[in-house]
Amino acid sequence: MNLLVVGAGAMGRWFADVVGSAGTEVAFADTDPDVATAAADAVGGRAVALDTTERFDGVCLAVPISAVESAVATFAPRAERAMVDVTGTMATPVEAMRTHVPDRERLSLHPLFAPGNAPGRIAVVDDAAGPVTDEIRETLARENEPFETTPDEHDRAMTTVQARTHAAVLAYALAADDVPDRFHTPISGPLSELADQVLSGSPGVYAEIQTAFDGTDEVAAAAERIAAAGPEEFEALYREARGSVGER
Question: pTM of the full predicted structure?
Answer without folding.
Answer: 0.89
